[in-house]
Amino acid sequence: MKPHWPKVQQWQRDDSMLLADMIGSLLGNPVERPKYESLLADDRLAPRSKEKPSESVPQYITKTLKKEGGYQSNREDKGNWTGGKVNVGRNLGTNFGITPVSWAEFLIGDGKGVNPESKEFKDTLANLKIADIQNITKDQAIDFYKKRADKQFKLTRYPPHLKNQIFDIMTHSGYKGGMRLIQKAAGTTPDGLFGTKTLNAIQNLSNNQLAKTREESFSPSFKDDNPGVIARARSFAKSKP
Questions:
Q1: Which residues face 94 on adjacent strands?
Q2: Which residues 6+ apart lie within 8 Å of 241 measured at CB?
Q3: Cβ(65)–Cβ(138) below 8 Å
């Protein structure tokens, strides 16, 4: 007697048939049943087209990568030095805006902040070479920025209209320095600590005001040494959607 196949969804029918075949084979009594299409016809098991990298990269990362560019080792750029200051430590340069200090932190914390006084961090930074920074790939940079945005910057807690600019600010100035600038623009205490007051204050903060405060924070010498920072800040000056 042929088994009765209830009218169910295609994927349910296919799974039932497959199970019946397996049981029948184990018992030495193959089940006679109607022919059915391959399980690969099921949408769940069909080959998936690979997602294009550009489609999975948030706009704030794409924009920042474009502004940061590739490798550079300008001796007047403090971010290029392992000591965080010009002529302090070794000039390893930066790549995609990733400094030696930030890369050492990432190698240890995978996006989370780490203790700069820890032996692990100091040893990692001391062992970095120019080639380690030069060889950072675009895919590695994207992974770096994605994890930093999530684990260190905690970008999800900010208003959507400010995310692009806040990410760029924190990438350029670090978390605490960026937070102080954002707080100053929002008219709250610039202590570098995120809390309820800061959260409420930034809800109606416009990109125009934030960009203006950012531009005003640049010292004359910094603007002279980094002529592109004004244009970078102003590129975010737009009205709140």
A1: 72
A2: 161
A3: yes
Q: Contact 79/90 with Cβ under 8 angstroms?
A: no
H or E, element range at 175 = helix 175-186
Amino acid at 173: S
Radius of gyration of the chain (CA): 27
All residue ranges of the chain with pLDDT < 70 are 1-55, 239-241
pLDDT tens digits along 151-206: 889 999 999 999 999 999 998 888 899 999 999 999 999 999 999 999 999 999 99
Q: By the 8 A CB rule, do 100 and 91 touch?
A: no
d(CA 145, CA 139): 10
Number of H helices, E strands in the chain: 13, 0
- At 203, which amino acid appears? Q
CB 11 within 8 A of CB 32: no
- Tell me the domains of the chain and their CATH numbers: 10-41 (no CATH), 66-148 (no CATH), 153-241 (1.20.141.10)
Taking the CB of residue 172, how many other CB atoms lie within 10 A of it? 20
Count the neighbouring beta carbons within 10 Å of the beta carbon of residue 152: 19
Helix ranges (DSSP H) in 35-160: 53-56, 59-68, 100-109, 119-127, 130-134, 138-147
Phi, psi of 70 (to 5 degrees): -95, -145
CA distances from 103 to 11, 87, 134 (A): 47, 19, 12
**In the prediction, which pLDDT does 14 show?**
47
Task: Please answer whether residues 93 and 131 qualify as being in contact, where contact means their C-beta atoms are separated by less than 8 angstroms.
Answer: no
